[in-house]
Amino acid sequence: MKKTLQLFVYIITLLFCSMQVHGQGTTPKRICATEVPEAAWEDWFSQKVVEYTKNKASGITQMANYNIPLVVHILHNGDAVGSNENISLAQVQSQINILNADFSGTNADIGNVPAVFAAAKAGNTGISFCLAKVNPSGATLSEVGVDRINWQARGWQNPNSFYTIASFKSFMENTVKPNTIWDPKKYMNIWVVDMDAEGLLGYATFPAGSNLSGMFTGETATTSGVVMNQNAFGNIGTAIPPYNKGRVATHEVGHWLGLRHIWGDGTCKTDYCGDTPPAYDKNFGCPTHPHNLGFCQGNTTGEMFMNYMDYTSDDCKNMFTRDQMTRMQTAMQNGTYRSTLPFSNACDAANSTPAFNLKLYDYVTPSATSINYGSAFSVSTNIANFGTGAFSGDYCAAVFDNTYQFVDFVEIKSNNALAAGYAYSSNLQFTNPGILEMVPGNYFIGIFSRPPGGTWTLVSDNVNFKNLVPLSVVNEADMELYSPITITNGGVLKQGQTATVNLDIANTGATTFVGQYQVNLYQLDGLFAETIGTISESTGLGSGYHYSSPYLNFTTNAIVSKPGSYLLVVQTKKTNGSWIIAGASYYPNPIKVTIQGPNPDIYEANNGVAQAYSLPLAFSSNNAAVLTTGANLHVATDSDFYKINLPAGYNYSIRARAHDSYNASNGNVYSADVLFSYSKNAGTNWFGNYDDTMPKNLVVSGGSTLYFKVGGFFEGMTGTYLLDVQITRTPYQFLWTGEFNSDWNNVNNWSAGRLPTNTDDIIIKAGTPFSPIIANGVTGICRSIKAETGASVNVATGGRLNVTSQ
Q1: Among candidates 240, 262, 241, 267, which has minimal Cα distance to 251?
Q2: What's the predicted TM-score (pTM) here?
């Protein structure tokens, strides 16, 4: 019997959190006027959490890293920037820094978590935030991530004049948000307002679900986001204790990502997270642990009042849990206005040329909404250019799995041109003879564009024309896979080691099956790799029967295939018949697996700055080429880090490029489309997001260590690439700039702002009063020294000048 997915009608509700100030000397309390999400919404969302958890456990999906572009709409009355409610960019940045620390588990107070809750700490949730660099039209923002809105100039009522939550909400939802929101599929929207509605601190919208049908009220394309009180935003400026540590926004963004209050919005109710102990009610101030121990049935630890989803003071909160992280990841995969944010380029720099603006001009239509595994299919649409500049470049249709990880291209159409104000009308059709990596399951197809030397960008929605449309892949047969495919030995296939695959098969046909079962590995292009095991069924499996536990075990003494990604396929063959793929009506078949090796490439493990591989540097006539020959992204989560040590004593001009599947100018073929960035400060700041060649040379003076980071263009990409770094060096000029007869040992007298060392070649130029004095007891050091005509060095009695290579 085939399983069906029941879709629920649900209501998304808004969450309102407020602060009531009591008599003088008391602690202000946050009071929540929450409209709790309806049961239908939680049923839908909890089911998505279960699906995510199962897929993660089976290896079908992995935890993703999401960088969310963010815009802060600041409502003000015309005050100068940084005054009163027109808060400064620095205050905005302080809040973003807090969000990034809290959601990555690097907050300074994470060590305050009680020991009993240490194992529940989420650590890095995989979610970060960046301030948008461009507005929806693609123009550069004068202040990154900030949109200042003068409510007086708009003719609106003073937001501070609404004294009830209901009236303030009506003003925000019906006036402010619809008239100021930026596309919530490309930006997370935050509104910062001077408000006095019953002490309101902020509220957020829960994630709307793309797979829910029916009417709902709540989050829409004109309301999605977070509303914040300026007095509880960031940790400087207008922020006021006890909510001046930025944790109110952390709390509200948690709601925006699907998190519930830890007390479940009722006495000892559930927040649907198994690792947050039951809580009797909301908590205020900063209780002492253990708090309310045993007040609720099953609470053996005390309440987790330090969780960001309680109402304690900002300086008391310091943690999310692992189950809360799972809900956030689920929201990012399934939320209508969350899942598309990773495709936004709002945090990229604007193009200085006249901007094209591509939007869909028709429905994105697959040839069928459900296709058989390995079958040919196509997808068609039209695109219009609503911008002021012409577009030239490539289009593609790309396939993503249900966690929005890249699978493969349907087709890339290269060298297209579309003038401003024009549209295609006869359908752009992308075709593919069959993608074997699209194993049975649910997928999305997206339409992307890419200018020359640029990056793939999701073509924008246009009214009813929506991008990222669903497509399912099915595989039905009389002999059906009847359990998950389980790889023993820790679920890992390793080259040269034994492996066992366990599974069950059911006979859904009308006759008894006699024949063989086999588990094979195939390359992603369909070429046979190896057989893991074969089992003969000579007795016969009757119609309607399957095997009892422990089912069937297929074993090989050693995996012989090279490290990389493969398809693991369960196949059946009747006596005198042909091999066919076992059906996938109940469980996925085939599945994607990865064979690991002791060293997937010669540079591993180089998966972080601390593990960065040191690339050798050898100059010939002051030129050097540094290549990562043989480099690959060996698994879907692989990111490669490299470093180049540039010796002091030279200026360096550096130009790097990636040779990959998108563009390789060296005549070789590569299988991964990659991006790379560089850092000059050991990963504290990364610059660029290059898909081809750096647009200009990078200049490094005086020598340093330069870091490079390489990752897949789309999440989940694997394959080969080459990072090609071309370096030219020139001798560093260490100049004397001091006055006549002044002290050699004074750093202010040298162009570098430091004293020369035995690696510096110094120059005392002619025509200026250049006579450094090395005083009694002082030793001057350099590698070489050049005194031009009229210049000299005076060495006093007792002074010394050591020239190491004159």
Answers
A1: 262
A2: 0.55
